[in-house]
Amino acid sequence: MKQPEASNSSKHPLNSAATLHPALLLLGLTIALLWCIFLSFGTHGKDNGADYVDKLRAEFKKISPPDPASAPDNQGFDAKSSSVYIESDYHTSLPLDTVLTSYRNQLTANGWAHAGLFDTSHVPRETYCKGPLAAELEIQPSTNAWIVQYRFSMYWNQVSVKECTPTP
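Given the sequence above, the corresponding structure tokens read:
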């Protein structure tokens, strides 16, 4: 009795178990190599938050709140590969103009350029830049007319902070 002939598809070299496994292995290695090349080019030349931690902490320490200002127990620090952020909240009985002038004088004396006064959601923010770093003085709403509450922060962010564009 004559055996039925195998179909043409089983005679194709890529359909055999012996050649299918090395072909998949080669494909997998190629994909892995391309992924590694992509990652090395994708991060080459980009800043990393770890590069700015010490610099930002040093800059933050150079700026002091005006006397008498007391810091409530809210001080924050966050560092990731794409951002570094340091902040502290304060309250004072000094007039708002005195607070703004104190920070403006200290920041500009330390090489920071004024980038503008912004009002977002009725929260005024005065912003300064120093290269890729930003500093902000954000005035917080207060229930007491005699107390000024504010947040002073410095940050570096891979996405939004570029070279400073000071206001004229």
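Residues 49-157 form a domain with the TATA-Binding Protein fold (CATH 3.30.310). Try to locate this feature in the token string yourself.
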